[in-house]
Amino acid sequence: MNTETVGVESKTKVLPFEGAGAMNLYRFAFLSVLAIASPLVFSQPVTGSFVNAALFLSAAFFGFRRESFAIATVPSLVALATGQLPAVFMPLVPFIVAGNLLLVYLADRGFRKAEPFVVTAVSAAFAKSALLFAAGSVLFATMLRDFPVADKIPSMFGWLQLATALVGAAIASGVLRMTRFFSR
């Protein structure tokens, strides 16, 4: 029985699967659809939770690799293109992508070190939230203060980012537990 561990290295030990090549394609397709469709369908709290779940799952399944880069980048562009993220917030898109990549990087690192999921998830969620809060605060104070929707920045890029990252981590934890159960 050939089992591969999910992640970049064999010592990752996040999830064992048989036939990981095809399985990774299915995972990538599912996470891509989740990342693309969420901004089209849901409000920001629900979208953010699903996108963050996709980011945590991407870190668990792929590590900090190109698959995760795509999943970290696409949701912000879809949200901007569909108007869920107001056009005036376009200067924040690179910071949103950077926050997503930071979350994936820290989650991947925690998974590789076999840290408890809760520790990994909370630290990655706080780091992403802090980055977005700082970027949002600076842009609000400098460039976006005079725009009518700028008053939404503190809530959109503050506590809501932390809340959706933590909810996304909880969703990802449930998916990972179910996946482990069904892969036995």
What is the count of distinct domains? 1
CATH class: Mainly Alpha
Gyration radius over CA: 17 Å
Q: Main β-sheet: number of strands, strand sense, barrel status?
A: 2 strands, antiparallel
Mean pLDDT: 81
Low-confidence stretches: 1-19
The total count of helices amounts to 7
> What is the CATH architecture annotation?
Orthogonal Bundle
Main β-sheet, spatial strand arrangement: 1-2
Task: Note the topology.
Layout: E1 3-5, E2 16-18, H1 20-41, H2 44-62, H3 66-82, H4 93-112, H5 117-144, H6 153-156, H7 159-182
Antiparallel strand pairs: 1-2
Helix pairs in contact: 1-2, 1-3, 2-3, 2-4, 2-7, 3-4, 4-5, 5-7
Short characterization:
The protein is mainly α.
What does this structure look like?
With 184 residues, this protein is mainly alpha-helical. It has a single domain (3-182), classed as Arp2/3 complex 21 kDa subunit ARPC3 (Orthogonal Bundle). The chain has seven helices and two strands, in the order ββααααααα. It starts with a strand and ends with a helix. Mean pLDDT is 81; it is low at 1-19.
